[in-house]
Design a protein that fits this description.
The protein is of the alpha/beta class. The longest helix is centred in the last third of the chain and has 15 residues. The radius of gyration is 17 Å and the shape is globular. It has twelve helices and eight strands. An eight-stranded mixed β-sheet has the order 3-4-2-5-1-6-7-8, with helices on both faces. It binds adenosine-5'-diphosphate and magnesium ion. Magnesium ion binds next to helix 1. Adenosine-5'-diphosphate binds next to helix 1 and helix 10.
Protein backbone atom coordinates (compact mmCIF):
# COMPACT_ATOMS: atom_id res chain seq x y z
CA UNK A 1 0.00 0.00 0.00
CA UNK A 2 1.51 3.30 -1.09
CA UNK A 3 0.72 6.25 1.11
CA UNK A 4 1.16 9.65 -0.49
CA UNK A 5 1.21 12.88 1.53
CA UNK A 6 0.47 15.89 -0.65
CA UNK A 7 2.09 18.75 1.23
CA UNK A 8 3.33 22.31 0.99
CA UNK A 9 2.88 24.82 3.78
CA UNK A 10 1.86 27.44 1.27
CA UNK A 11 -1.82 27.77 0.44
CA UNK A 12 -3.17 27.96 -3.09
CA UNK A 13 -0.43 25.92 -4.74
CA UNK A 14 -2.64 23.03 -5.90
CA UNK A 15 -2.51 20.54 -3.01
CA UNK A 16 -6.22 19.83 -2.89
CA UNK A 17 -6.68 19.87 -6.66
CA UNK A 18 -3.78 17.41 -6.96
CA UNK A 19 -4.93 15.18 -4.08
CA UNK A 20 -8.48 14.85 -5.41
CA UNK A 21 -7.64 14.39 -9.08
CA UNK A 22 -4.65 12.13 -8.52
CA UNK A 23 -6.78 9.96 -6.22
CA UNK A 24 -9.61 9.96 -8.80
CA UNK A 25 -7.17 9.17 -11.62
CA UNK A 26 -5.75 6.20 -9.73
CA UNK A 27 -9.28 5.01 -8.89
CA UNK A 28 -10.25 5.14 -12.55
CA UNK A 29 -7.25 2.98 -13.33
CA UNK A 30 -8.79 0.32 -11.10
CA UNK A 31 -6.81 1.01 -7.93
CA UNK A 32 -8.59 1.08 -4.59
CA UNK A 33 -7.91 4.51 -3.15
CA UNK A 34 -8.60 6.22 0.17
CA UNK A 35 -8.35 10.01 0.19
CA UNK A 36 -7.87 11.45 3.67
CA UNK A 37 -8.81 15.11 4.07
CA UNK A 38 -6.47 16.61 6.66
CA UNK A 39 -7.40 20.24 6.15
CA UNK A 40 -9.95 21.72 8.59
CA UNK A 41 -11.22 23.75 5.63
CA UNK A 42 -12.54 20.45 4.21
CA UNK A 43 -11.85 21.44 0.62
CA UNK A 44 -11.11 17.91 -0.59
CA UNK A 45 -14.38 16.69 0.95
CA UNK A 46 -16.36 19.48 -0.73
CA UNK A 47 -14.53 18.81 -4.00
CA UNK A 48 -15.88 15.25 -3.97
CA UNK A 49 -19.38 16.41 -3.11
CA UNK A 50 -19.28 15.32 0.53
CA UNK A 51 -20.61 17.82 3.04
CA UNK A 52 -19.38 16.74 6.41
CA UNK A 53 -21.98 18.31 8.68
CA UNK A 54 -24.03 17.08 11.61
CA UNK A 55 -23.65 13.40 12.37
CA UNK A 56 -21.34 12.60 9.46
CA UNK A 57 -18.25 10.97 10.99
CA UNK A 58 -14.99 12.73 10.12
CA UNK A 59 -11.25 12.28 10.50
CA UNK A 60 -11.45 14.45 13.64
CA UNK A 61 -12.98 11.50 15.48
CA UNK A 62 -10.08 9.33 14.42
CA UNK A 63 -7.60 11.85 15.84
CA UNK A 64 -9.47 11.97 19.13
CA UNK A 65 -9.67 8.18 19.35
CA UNK A 66 -13.45 7.99 19.09
CA UNK A 67 -13.67 6.16 15.78
CA UNK A 68 -11.63 3.86 13.60
CA UNK A 69 -10.63 4.97 10.14
CA UNK A 70 -12.97 2.37 8.61
CA UNK A 71 -15.87 3.96 10.51
CA UNK A 72 -15.38 7.40 8.97
CA UNK A 73 -14.45 6.55 5.39
CA UNK A 74 -17.25 6.68 2.84
CA UNK A 75 -17.48 5.71 -0.80
CA UNK A 76 -17.27 8.84 -2.97
CA UNK A 77 -17.21 7.20 -6.39
CA UNK A 78 -16.12 3.90 -7.87
CA UNK A 79 -12.92 2.67 -6.15
CA UNK A 80 -12.50 5.96 -4.28
CA UNK A 81 -13.23 6.34 -0.57
CA UNK A 82 -12.99 9.58 1.38
CA UNK A 83 -12.28 10.23 5.05
CA UNK A 84 -13.84 13.70 5.27
CA UNK A 85 -12.90 16.70 7.40
CA UNK A 86 -14.57 19.84 8.61
CA UNK A 87 -13.73 22.69 10.97
CA UNK A 88 -13.82 20.35 13.99
CA UNK A 89 -10.38 19.26 12.86
CA UNK A 90 -8.99 22.67 13.80
CA UNK A 91 -9.79 21.79 17.42
CA UNK A 92 -7.79 18.58 17.17
CA UNK A 93 -4.60 20.59 16.81
CA UNK A 94 -5.21 22.13 20.24
CA UNK A 95 -6.61 19.01 21.87
CA UNK A 96 -3.57 17.01 20.86
CA UNK A 97 -1.02 19.43 22.27
CA UNK A 98 -0.46 17.30 25.36
CA UNK A 99 -1.36 13.90 23.91
CA UNK A 100 1.31 11.23 23.99
CA UNK A 101 2.40 9.90 20.61
CA UNK A 102 0.35 12.60 18.92
CA UNK A 103 2.54 12.43 15.79
CA UNK A 104 1.68 8.79 15.09
CA UNK A 105 -2.10 8.74 15.53
CA UNK A 106 -2.84 8.59 11.82
CA UNK A 107 -0.17 6.00 11.08
CA UNK A 108 -1.54 3.75 13.82
CA UNK A 109 -5.12 4.27 12.60
CA UNK A 110 -4.07 3.22 9.09
CA UNK A 111 -2.17 0.19 10.35
CA UNK A 112 -5.10 -0.87 12.53
CA UNK A 113 -7.34 -1.13 9.44
CA UNK A 114 -4.75 -2.32 6.96
CA UNK A 115 -6.03 -5.87 6.67
CA UNK A 116 -9.70 -4.86 6.37
CA UNK A 117 -9.24 -1.91 4.06
CA UNK A 118 -7.03 -3.40 1.38
CA UNK A 119 -6.41 -0.07 -0.30
CA UNK A 120 -3.75 0.16 -2.97
CA UNK A 121 -3.22 3.86 -2.33
CA UNK A 122 -3.85 6.31 0.45
CA UNK A 123 -3.64 9.98 -0.55
CA UNK A 124 -3.47 12.60 2.23
CA UNK A 125 -4.39 16.21 1.49
CA UNK A 126 -2.45 18.32 4.00
CA UNK A 127 -3.41 21.72 5.39
CA UNK A 128 -1.29 24.78 4.50
CA UNK A 129 0.83 24.54 7.65
CA UNK A 130 3.48 22.37 9.25
CA UNK A 131 1.52 21.60 12.40
CA UNK A 132 0.62 18.29 14.00
CA UNK A 133 -1.80 17.28 11.21
CA UNK A 134 0.90 17.58 8.56
CA UNK A 135 3.40 15.80 10.80
CA UNK A 136 0.87 12.96 11.13
CA UNK A 137 0.61 12.73 7.35
CA UNK A 138 4.41 12.65 6.98
CA UNK A 139 4.69 9.99 9.66
CA UNK A 140 2.05 7.83 7.97
CA UNK A 141 3.39 8.36 4.45
CA UNK A 142 5.69 6.28 2.31
CA UNK A 143 6.19 9.19 -0.05
CA UNK A 144 5.65 12.94 -0.27
CA UNK A 145 4.39 14.89 -3.28
CA UNK A 146 4.95 18.62 -3.31
CA UNK A 147 2.71 20.70 -5.53
CA UNK A 148 4.38 23.93 -6.48
CA UNK A 149 3.39 26.85 -8.59
CA UNK A 150 6.42 27.94 -10.61
CA UNK A 151 6.71 31.60 -9.77
CA UNK A 152 9.42 33.77 -8.34
CA UNK A 153 8.73 32.97 -4.66
CA UNK A 154 8.20 29.24 -5.17
CA UNK A 155 11.65 28.20 -4.04
CA UNK A 156 11.56 30.27 -0.86
CA UNK A 157 9.45 27.85 1.14
CA UNK A 158 11.35 24.77 0.02
CA UNK A 159 14.09 24.88 2.64
CA UNK A 160 11.48 24.75 5.40
CA UNK A 161 9.87 21.72 3.75
CA UNK A 162 13.32 20.24 3.45
CA UNK A 163 13.96 20.61 7.18
CA UNK A 164 10.56 19.29 8.23
CA UNK A 165 10.71 16.18 6.07
CA UNK A 166 14.29 15.49 7.21
CA UNK A 167 13.25 15.82 10.84
CA UNK A 168 10.30 13.45 10.43
CA UNK A 169 12.51 10.94 8.60
CA UNK A 170 15.07 11.05 11.40
CA UNK A 171 12.68 10.87 14.32
CA UNK A 172 9.47 9.19 13.19
CA UNK A 173 9.53 7.54 9.79
CA UNK A 174 12.81 6.11 8.49
CA UNK A 175 11.32 5.15 5.13
CA UNK A 176 10.01 8.63 4.27
CA UNK A 177 11.03 9.91 0.86
CA UNK A 178 10.08 12.90 -1.18
CA UNK A 179 8.98 11.38 -4.48
CA UNK A 180 8.85 14.67 -6.27
CA UNK A 181 7.46 18.02 -7.16
CA UNK A 182 4.26 18.46 -9.13
CA UNK A 183 4.32 21.68 -11.10
CA UNK A 184 0.81 23.11 -10.89
CA UNK A 185 -0.85 26.14 -12.48
CA UNK A 186 1.85 25.78 -15.10
CA UNK A 187 2.09 28.43 -17.81
CA UNK A 188 3.40 26.58 -20.84
CA UNK A 189 6.00 28.36 -22.91
CA UNK A 190 6.84 31.15 -20.46
CA UNK A 191 10.41 32.06 -19.70
CA UNK A 192 9.71 32.25 -15.97
CA UNK A 193 8.28 28.73 -15.76
CA UNK A 194 11.32 27.37 -17.61
CA UNK A 195 13.79 29.28 -15.39
CA UNK A 196 12.14 28.15 -12.16
CA UNK A 197 12.07 24.57 -13.41
CA UNK A 198 15.83 24.78 -14.06
CA UNK A 199 16.46 26.22 -10.58
CA UNK A 200 14.41 23.45 -9.03
CA UNK A 201 16.26 20.77 -10.94
CA UNK A 202 19.55 22.17 -9.64
CA UNK A 203 18.19 22.35 -6.10
CA UNK A 204 17.16 18.69 -6.25
CA UNK A 205 20.45 17.56 -7.79
CA UNK A 206 22.35 19.13 -4.91
CA UNK A 207 20.39 17.42 -2.16
CA UNK A 208 22.25 15.27 0.34
CA UNK A 209 22.05 11.54 -0.52
CA UNK A 210 21.07 10.81 3.10
CA UNK A 211 18.14 13.19 3.01
CA UNK A 212 14.58 12.20 2.11
CA UNK A 213 15.03 14.33 -1.01
CA UNK A 214 17.79 12.18 -2.48
CA UNK A 215 15.49 10.64 -5.10
CA UNK A 216 13.12 13.57 -5.55
CA UNK A 217 12.41 14.65 -9.10
CA UNK A 218 10.09 16.92 -10.96
CA UNK A 219 7.22 14.87 -12.30
CA UNK A 220 7.17 15.12 -16.06
CA UNK A 221 3.42 15.72 -16.07
CA UNK A 222 3.00 19.47 -15.72
CA UNK A 223 -0.45 20.54 -14.59
CA UNK A 224 -1.37 23.41 -16.86
CA UNK A 225 -3.60 26.24 -15.75
CA UNK A 226 -7.11 25.20 -16.76
CA UNK A 227 -10.33 26.88 -15.70
CA UNK A 228 -12.18 23.56 -15.58
CA UNK A 229 -9.95 22.50 -12.68
CA UNK A 230 -11.06 25.58 -10.77
CA UNK A 231 -14.74 25.00 -11.60
CA UNK A 232 -14.94 21.28 -10.76
CA UNK A 233 -14.97 21.67 -6.92
CA UNK A 234 -18.20 23.67 -6.94
CA UNK A 235 -19.86 20.79 -8.79
CA UNK A 236 -18.58 18.27 -6.25
CA UNK A 237 -16.83 16.28 -8.95
CA UNK A 238 -13.31 15.26 -9.87
CA UNK A 239 -12.07 16.60 -13.18
CA UNK A 240 -12.73 13.21 -14.80
CA UNK A 241 -16.44 13.46 -14.08
CA UNK A 242 -16.74 17.20 -14.59
CA UNK A 243 -14.79 17.69 -17.81
CA UNK A 244 -13.11 14.47 -18.93
CA UNK A 245 -11.80 15.95 -22.18
CA UNK A 246 -10.13 19.11 -20.86
CA UNK A 247 -6.36 19.60 -20.52
CA UNK A 248 -6.73 19.38 -16.73
CA UNK A 249 -8.06 15.83 -17.03
CA UNK A 250 -5.31 15.00 -19.51
CA UNK A 251 -2.60 16.34 -17.18
CA UNK A 252 -3.86 14.56 -14.06
CA UNK A 253 -4.30 11.32 -15.99
CA UNK A 254 -0.66 11.70 -17.03
CA UNK A 255 0.36 12.18 -13.41
CA UNK A 256 -1.66 9.15 -12.27
CA UNK A 257 0.01 7.04 -14.97
CA UNK A 258 3.44 8.27 -13.89
CA UNK A 259 2.66 7.27 -10.32
CA UNK A 260 1.42 3.85 -11.42
CA UNK A 261 4.57 3.35 -13.46
CA UNK A 262 6.98 3.89 -10.57
CA UNK A 263 7.84 0.62 -8.92
CA UNK A 264 6.09 -0.03 -5.66
CA UNK A 265 8.87 -0.09 -3.12
CA UNK A 266 6.60 0.70 -0.22
CA UNK A 267 6.68 -1.48 2.84
CA UNK A 268 4.90 -1.43 6.14
CA UNK A 269 5.87 1.50 8.31
CA UNK A 270 7.66 0.34 11.46
CA UNK A 271 6.84 1.75 14.84
CA UNK A 272 9.04 4.68 15.83
P1 LIG B 1 -4.17 24.33 -1.98
O1 LIG B 1 -4.90 23.09 -1.59
O2 LIG B 1 -2.70 24.16 -2.06
O3 LIG B 1 -4.56 25.52 -1.15
P2 LIG B 1 -5.88 24.31 -4.33
O4 LIG B 1 -5.73 22.99 -4.96
O5 LIG B 1 -7.10 24.53 -3.50
O6 LIG B 1 -4.60 24.69 -3.50
O7 LIG B 1 -5.80 25.41 -5.50
C1 LIG B 1 -5.95 26.80 -5.24
C2 LIG B 1 -6.93 27.40 -6.23
O8 LIG B 1 -6.42 27.29 -7.54
C3 LIG B 1 -8.28 26.70 -6.24
O9 LIG B 1 -9.28 27.64 -6.48
C4 LIG B 1 -8.16 25.72 -7.40
O10 LIG B 1 -9.43 25.42 -7.97
C5 LIG B 1 -7.30 26.51 -8.35
N1 LIG B 1 -6.45 25.64 -9.18
C6 LIG B 1 -5.60 24.67 -8.77
N2 LIG B 1 -4.93 24.13 -9.81
C7 LIG B 1 -5.37 24.77 -10.92
C8 LIG B 1 -5.03 24.68 -12.32
N3 LIG B 1 -4.12 23.82 -12.78
N4 LIG B 1 -5.68 25.52 -13.18
C9 LIG B 1 -6.59 26.40 -12.72
N5 LIG B 1 -6.92 26.54 -11.44
C10 LIG B 1 -6.33 25.75 -10.53
MG1 LIG C 1 -6.11 22.69 0.07
Amino acid sequence: MRRIAVMNQKGGVGKTTTSVNLAAGLARAGQKVLLIDLDPQGHASIHLGVEAYGQVPTIYQVFTGRKKLTEVQQLACENLWLAPANLDLAAAELELVDAQNREVILRDAILACEDQGAFDYIVMDCPPSLTVLTINALTAATEVFIPLQPHFFALQGLSKLFETTALVKRRLNRQLKVAGIVLCLYETGTRLAADITDDLTRFLEESDPQSPWAQARIFSSRIRRNIKLAEAPSFGQSIFDYAPKCTGAEDYLGLANEVLATANQATRPHAA
